[in-house]
Amino acid sequence: MRNLKEDHKGFSTILALALIPLSGFATDIYLPSLPAMAKDLNVSASAIQLTLVFFMFSLGISQIFIGSILDSFGRFKISIASLAVFSAASFVIALVPDIYVIYAMRIIQGIAIAFIVIAKRAYFVDLFKGDKLKSYISLFSIIWASAPIMAPFLGGYLEHSFGWKSNFYFLGGLSLLMLLLELRHSGETIKELHPFKFKAITNTYSNMLKSVDFTLGFVILGITFAIVIMFNLTSPFIIERIFGYSAITTGYSALLSGLSVMIGGITAKSMIKKPLAKKVGTAITIQLILALLMIFTSSLESNIYTLVIFTMGLNICGGFIYNIVLGYCLSRFSKNAGVASGLTGGGAYMVSALFSYSFVNIYAVKSQFLLGLANISLLAIVGIVFIIFNKYRLKN
């Protein structure tokens, strides 16, 4: 086991921070290319949307169990192997344009990304303590949120200039470069490997899932994020096929969508001392009003501006809710923070994947009106779940 050298610690830390948004790049960079992929592969919109759903679901379910594996077998070798697998899978997608091969590779990418990102989060816990650790942790959400802003913007230009395959060549090349830099500058950071005790780990997960407020918390996170994903899944087809704009415009729209989520999260941080129920309840109410306006105004005026403006409002509120409920879930089990983090993130990703894809296809979303209907249906569910969540939260 090659331990991290002290003189490599600075650059290794930069590499670790750079790898945290890789999951966002893998999710969002090819969103402007969805219509072109569907046309080139001769498949339906729903078939190509499944590539994102499979990635998110595998990323989500993997996160639940990975923390224990990394604690037992180390971070460095596993993250190196995962980078190699992710890079190879990216090149395979570009070189073998078959929808079923792409499905398989996206599942593999999701698992690999889960190992990489969680290993890099653990890196900071291994090496830093106190205020220094808190400072780095506060950077995580900002750095992670940068990917949904930058990735589709870059992906739109890549699609316009070189075609959809260039997105996956980019992902493959970027991860290969990071792999080489990791081999040169990084090393193992865990001081002591922990024995892998399946029964104890299972009991911890079981106790958490039996806590209704915690479980409903990540369900709220998942459905809230599903509203963001629904826009990501459908907007390329609406903007490019219905409104007649290019993939570059789709990239700009996704950039504004991602920026809105970040604004919501920053706003929530500034209101941290306000009562949770009042904050979240108000945000859900505003979302319901915006979704209704999205539906009713579509008969009067439906264009890229109304689509994006209403979506930005929904996403600001969504980012606000996500930040608040995530903080609650992560602090709910302070003695098992790593497991709680994996279960919260993994559970939320799986819920997002299932709800976003299901409602996109239930409503066959191809317009602002249908997207508004899908949004208001999900918000009604969030509202009901939040009422039950708050009831159990107050008990605890």
What would your notes on this structure say?
It is found in: Membrane. Its main location: membrane. It is a multi-pass membrane protein. Keywords: Membrane, Transmembrane, Transmembrane helix, Transport. This is Multidrug effflux MFS transporter. The structure is a single chain. The chain is mostly helical and about 400 residues long. About 85% of the residues lie in helices and about 0% in strands. Helix 5 runs antiparallel to helix 6 and helix 7 packs antiparallel against helix 11. The longest helix has about 35 residues. The mean pLDDT is about 90.
Write the layout of secondary structure elements.
Elements: H1 9-19, H2 22-28, H3 34-41, H4 45-73, H5 76-95, H6 99-127, H7 130-162, H8 165-185, H9 198-209, H10 212-242, H11 247-270, H12 276-297, H13 304-332, H14 337-362, H15 368-395
Helix pairs in contact: 1-6, 1-8, 2-7, 3-4, 4-6, 4-14, 5-6, 5-8, 6-7, 7-11, 10-11, 10-13, 10-14, 10-15, 11-13, 12-13, 12-15, 13-14
Structure described in brief:
Its main location: membrane. This protein has 15 helices and no strands. The chain has helices at 9-19, 22-28, 34-41, 45-73, 76-95, 99-127, 130-162, 165-185, 198-209, 212-242, 247-270, 276-297, 304-332, 337-362, 368-395.
